[in-house]
Amino acid sequence: MSTTWPQALAWRMGRQLLDPVGSGSAADVVRALGAVPGQHDDSAELALRLRRTTSGPDDLARALAEGELVSTFAFRGAVHLMTPHDAAAYLALRASSRMWELPSWQSYYGLAPADWPGLRAAVREALADGPLTFTELGAALTAHAAFRTVPITWTLLKPLAWQGDLSFGPRRDGDATFQLLDTSPRWTGLAEVDEAGRHAVESYVRAYGPTTADQVQQWLGGGLGAGRKHIRGWLADLGDRLTEVDVDGAPRLLLRDDVDALLATPPSTAVRLLPRYDQWVLGPGTADSHVVPPAQRDPVSRGANVVLVGGVVSGTWARTDTEVVVTWFPDTPPGPRDALDAEVARLATIVDRPLRLVVGAAVVDSPSGT
Question: What pLDDT band is residue 361 in, cutting at 50, 70 and 90?
């Protein structure tokens, strides 16, 4: 079984609702991607809406309020949007590393492993009556004699999220709040670790295949702290459900039931505008030269909005109130002008304002707004 990278990226674009654009809900998009970075509200919302044929500005907030999605610390310790089912797996893997028991953590926070059950109970008590801001939660914790001298930092709250105690609640006057994760109506608790690992591996291969064991390791090991031995075991547990396909002469992993769809997918010429730190790039990593040209890795890693042509990052874009400025990378074929015009028109509909396309003359080398 052999294929080419243009064909493989086209299949992946279909899996990630980029070509064709999906018709499902915000939760359907997050489920397809596994997790969506949520620390930048504007980018997160745009990442979801650009993958939907019809969407509204309140869809993400509604999905969070109704428990279809949760927002909490996950990959690389950053905020991510996830479905409750996927969060149960990813948080279980992150919590299994028990990072808070490291000597450096014990020294800095003055908390021994035996102190954490009491801290978790204090957090749950503080949030029992509803969401609190970071300052309010910190004051509630240090009101306990046992935690009076504990430095309350955002980092300290991450293990509490990983263990399923808290998640982000609705913003209050622009400030983030924390709430009990149990208040999410679809939350059922953390998954068992090996079950979580198998689910996470399968979800990644389905969304980001054809892939390699090293990329799975980057996603779950680098992102969630899962051990290399465990990841190898979870890959092995998939057994004959997993197979190898030849992509331009190199073996790649794919779920066996996706092979026929991959081989039947023609290369894509679709042009897509994606926001900074989009999962299309973060999933395989900016070091994947099939997605990001090596010479252009730096601006992409530092947060430029990207232009895809057939799945390859071929340029960057920035938006003002009236214009979308697109800059194509040197030595990279630009996308068809009519396809780019159509994508800018689609963006204008999403942001609800007229936008004029301007093709720039220099490579964007700094993060751009959305």
Answer: low
The confidence band for 331, taking pLDDT boundaries of 50, 70 and 90, is confident
Helix/strand/coil (H, E, C) string of the chain? Answer: CEECHHHHHHHHHHHCCECCEECCCHHHHHHHHCCEECCCHHHHHHHHHCCECCCCCCHHHHHHHCCCCEEEECHHHCEEEECHHHHHHHHHHHHHCCHHHCHHHHHHHCCCHHHHHHHHHHHHHHHCCCCEEHHHHHHHHHCCHHHCCCCCCHHHHHHHHHCCCEEEEEEECCEEEEEEHHHCCCCCCCCCHHHHHHHHHHHHHHHHCCECHHHHHHHHHHHHCCCHHHHHHHHHHCHHHEEEEEECCEEEEEEHHHHHHHHCCCCCCCEEEECCCCHHHHCCCCCCCCCCCHHHHHHHHCCCEEEEECCEEEEEEEECCCEEEEEECCCCCCCCHHHHHHHHHHHHHHHCCCCEEEECCCCCCCCCCC
Contacts of 202 (CB under 8 A, 6+ apart): 238, 241, 255
Taking CA atoms, 234 is separated from 89, 211, 221, in Å, by 13, 15, 12
Architecture of domain 87-183 in this structure: Orthogonal Bundle (1.10)
pLDDT digits (tens, 9 = 90+) for 297-330: 999 999 999 999 999 999 999 999 999 999 999 9
Are 198 and 234 contacting, i.e. CB atoms less than 8 angstroms apart?
yes
Q: Is the pLDDT of residue 368 over 70?
A: no
- % of the chain residues with pLDDT over 70: 97
The correct answer on CATH 1.10.10.10 for the domain covering 2-20+191-263 is yes
Domain with CATH 1.10.10.10 in the chain: 2-20+191-263
Note the pLDDT tens digit of each residue in 277-301. Answer: 999 999 999 999 999 999 999 999 9
Mean pLDDT of 36-53: 94
Count the Cβ atoms, other than its own, within 10 Å of residue 66.
12
pLDDT, the chain, mean: 95
